[in-house]
Amino acid sequence: MTTARDIMTGGAHCVGAEESMLDAARKMAELGVGALPICGTDDRLKGVLTDRDIVVKVLGKTKNPATVLAGELAQGEAVTIGADDSADEIVATMTHHKVRRLPVIDGHRLVGMVALADAARALQDPKAGQLLDALSTD
Questions:
Q1: Whole-prediction pTM value?
Q2: Tens-place pLDDT, residues 54-86
Q3: Which domains does the chain have, with CATH numbers?
């Protein structure tokens, strides 16, 4: 059975909930990623921040990216996947929550990220197609 641990990108970097959108954007550029988990001062996952969030929720609303904090964009409980959960569970979670990236946790510790492309590569063609279809519709 293929698990999240098998297909994730390990060593995920967090943006602190108290860091600004400007800091988050710089970190994304430095790491070459389009999303970062938001971690609180308690080392708990608070959500996921995407480059789209910065553009739409900050720049698009003419807010100052130097003063808006990452924690302000964390919405409710973070959608995650367990490190030992199966590829089928990854698909079900992504489909249900209509997300393209999932933080992978082991207990309460962030251990990596699984992206849509990671899941698609790990699945047989029909399942990958179903996942892409589900995420592409409103």
A1: 0.81
A2: 999 999 999 999 999 999 988 767 899 999 999
A3: 4-136 (3.10.580.10)
Name which of 74, 4, 5 is nearest 36 in CA terms: 74
Strands 101-106 and 109-115: antiparallel
How many CB atoms lie under 10 A from the CB of residue 29?
A: 10
Which H or E run includes 82? strand 81-82
Between the CA of residue 59 and those of 18, 55, 56, 68, 100, what are the distances in Å?
Answer: 18, 5, 6, 10, 22
Give the pair of three-digit tokens for residue 63.
């807010």
Q: Name the residue among 79, 125, 87, 78 with its Cα closest to residue 4.
A: 87
